[in-house]
Amino acid sequence: MHDFDAGWDEEDAWWKANHASRPYAKGRSYDELRPAYFYGYVSTHRHRGRSWDEAKEDLRTGWDKFEAKGPGGAAWENVKDAVHDAWNRLTGKNRLDLDKMSRAGS
Hints:
Blueprint (H helix, E strand, L loop, with lengths): L7 H11 L11 H17 L5 H14 L10 H16 L3 H11 L1
Helix pairs in contact: 1-2, 2-4, 3-4
């Protein structure tokens, strides 16, 4: 177990409660997107200090080898937005959440 695994339970609960509000999630179940959220979560720890733009090609390559996506898992093009969303949430750059917070404060 990695030190960041303990935080996944909290993230998992957050994504389960909020995934349906994400524009890329229309018509997609949480179970379908869960591996992408987990990959984004794990990747922020593995690529600490790098921006999304710096890491995204490595993430694309890594997704093909990511065992947690399961056999026959979704192609990168089908999950990249969810991975990016999870990455941004953990790095404090989640545009969707920031937009919601600014509207709530208005």
